[in-house]
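If you are new to this repository, start here. Below is one unmodified record pulled from the training split, so you can see the exact layout before writing a loader.
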Amino acid sequence: MNSPRRDFLLATASAAALALTAGCATGTGRTADKKNAAEAGTPKRGGTLRAVFAGGGAGETLDPHAVNLFVDAARAKALYDKLADFGADLAPVPRLAERWEPNEALDTWKVTLRKASFHDGRPVTAEDVLHSYNRIADPKGTFRARASLEPIDLAASRALDASTVEFKLKRPYAEFPNVLAAFGAYIIPKGTTSFDEPVGSGPFTYGSFAPGKSLVVKRNDAYWEGAPHLDQLDIVVATEESARAGALLGGQVQYAHELSPATARTHEGKGRIEIIRLPGSSMQGFVMKTDRPPFDDPRVRQAFFHIADREELVDGALSGAGEIGNDLFGKGYQYYASGLPQRTQDLGRARALLKEAGAENLRVTLDTAPAGAGLVEAAGIFKDQAAEAGVTIEVKVGNKDTYWKDILDNGTFASYRSGSMPIESHLSQRLLTGSTTNATKWQHKDFDDLYQQAQSTRDEKERAALYERMQRRLHDEGGFLIWGFADWIVATAPTVHGVDAEAPANTLDWARFDTIWLA
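And here is the target side for that same chain:
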């Protein structure tokens, strides 16, 4: 009999045609995992892995709904499960949900749970799911997943039986499975009020926790997807990148998260540690405010698209640790418009567009801050590139602690980055008239209507065609100048195997310690 670890169940034909085929057919990013297994032999059981992450200090918590940092997410996925998670292409993959199926109107979804148990032996039930989602959605709380659950009418949703939840939505939503995979949308037992000794359904059980220092967890032999290979996992904290690299090189840990391109270049191929680059984990670009001069003229925006030398930006701002972008979010993800021509620098065309727009000798302020890797460096590089097209850019470095709030409504031109999320989420959260994080101020009713049409479309191919129409328009005249996608760099000791090398950060197989083994 096949192990449930590799057996992701498909839904009934109607549900599969709508959503699950995308999640299940693409798999869970196991290619590199299988490759590592072939090279290292059969996975071995036993041993303790120590993994180091940047931390959040003494205020850290094991409340899975309060996750914010990468270390929070790594701890949460060791102890808990979500109903779904994102595969390497950001399509939803079933987890505690065995399958999902919508009604004809796409405003009611029936979710069937698989057989799974919490660490104390209680079964995971529909009541636990509703309790978890109601806790996340409580307006008195500040949980990050609250915005993702907004489409659900929780007051009207109900448990049909112990293993079936009926979710009533506020409007048709073809991409509802994305909600089930939302960052922080973990399932906890009904009645949970304390997380001092957390009880989840994840692959590891709680051992001990010192906020800002370490978490110790043990193998869950009863895990629904099969017991982890490791006996024990220790997640420790080191805020400085040099300390994480030093701990790995010194043998104190066997897995180090979030290393710099410089560290990777220094040690890659030398045999002491293995460098793993997680592709497409961070979009890098600039936002142009389309509701104010000079970027209210689409010709100016198009000119800036042509100014960018994307290769130089990737090489200079990311030290080559990434790939070029094409002014669209989600390269390699489900629904990405890969057929559009790749933009290259064309200074002659940029000058012509600026002249046509009456914007020769243009002067623009570019807001930036050290709020993310490469932001300030990219601003300086683009300033020099723009000068070749006759554009004068003043780079203004702001406060990294308030930067994202500052640029949401202020200024005209700013550095920007984003982690991975489904393309549908990027559109809904950033590019609709009512989007709360619409930094480009792209507000067009006909564009909103296309999005709503997509969410009311059952057929996935037809829905994909609508997403492509939206992306074509953004590629032609949108406010995102997306020049690259940064790799996320992790490193391991040579004895560590089973680390997935294809999964972007915050997807299912990122920091997936239940599939790792020690040789």
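Two things worth knowing about this chain: The longest strand covers residues 274-288. The longest helix spans residues 460-477.
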